[in-house]
Amino acid sequence: MLTLVEKNDDVGLQLEAYHTGWTTHFFRGEPAPAQAYCEKGRGLYDFERHRSHAQLYGHDPGVCARTIGAWSEWLLGRPDTALAGINDALALAEELTHDFSLAMARVHASVLHQFRRDPEMVLQCIGSAEALAAEKRLALPLDPRIARGWALLVPDGVAAAVAPFRAALADRQKRGTTHYGPYSLTLFAEVLAHSGDHDGALAALADADAIAEKCGERWWKAEIYRLRGALTLSRGSVGESEAWFAEAIDTARRQQAKSLELRAATSLARLWGEQGRRTAAYGLLAPVYGWFTEGFDTADLKDANTLLGELS
Length: 312
What we know:
Blueprint: H1 2-5, H2 11-27, H3 31-44, H4 47-50, H5 53-57, H6 61-75, H7 79-95, H8 99-115, H9 119-136, H10 144-153, H11 158-175, H12 181-195, H13 198-215, H14 221-234, H15 238-255, H16 258-274, H17 278-291, H18 299-311
Helix pairs in contact: 2-3, 2-6, 3-6, 6-7, 6-8, 7-8, 8-9, 8-10, 9-10, 10-11, 10-12, 11-12, 12-13, 12-14, 13-14, 14-15, 14-16, 15-16, 16-17, 16-18, 17-18
């Protein structure tokens, strides 16, 4: 599409060509080119000239460039920049008179807050998306029960989290939907693990990995591997667990996903610390943590900083 429009002076067509690019790159697990395409799209987008695209193509490209851009920024290790981006997307969506673009922005905001491990904001954003969807009779791009199920997990509401998750995933299976499958199933695995169903959690991760490989949706692969490591460790398989953590780190590095690299490095460093390999653990985690320049109030960076203090 970019080749077709590169010699065309129709900015609207150029915008939509980049639109396909940032979406495809992101879900393939390529946040750096996705972010570059989002930046290009934001530069091309003009509110008055291109707001009609929401009606023509289903949702507003300016909003999408900001939400996918925010997700990409988080993966690339810029949590605060990501938060500013999602807030910018919500503000733009409020200006539009296109209900689905606003609902999409709210759902995407809930996902960004899940990345940041902020359950209260997840519930707030998904609740507002559901209210709009009910009022306007819209289908949301991600089942709200998935976001809510994860958010309910945090205050120890495991029983309340599992049931809606199962129902949401069953509905997805009936429709034959795979989009967001690896991400949704990985969150479900986390909920199942907290409920004590480790076999179910491992089965969910296997399904997540299979969908990622079949459909090419690889942006959450590092988390699939990291959680496999955590689950195998809980079963006492230390060597296998270490291998999965290492695979998660390698995957995140290949994808330039610094936020997921930090999570995986924290998990492996904690394991090494418990084995008495404190120097190696510190040497693994400290450079990853030291790379970050923002987001120090987020849960992942707090956890890494606390662990570094214990290892030093």
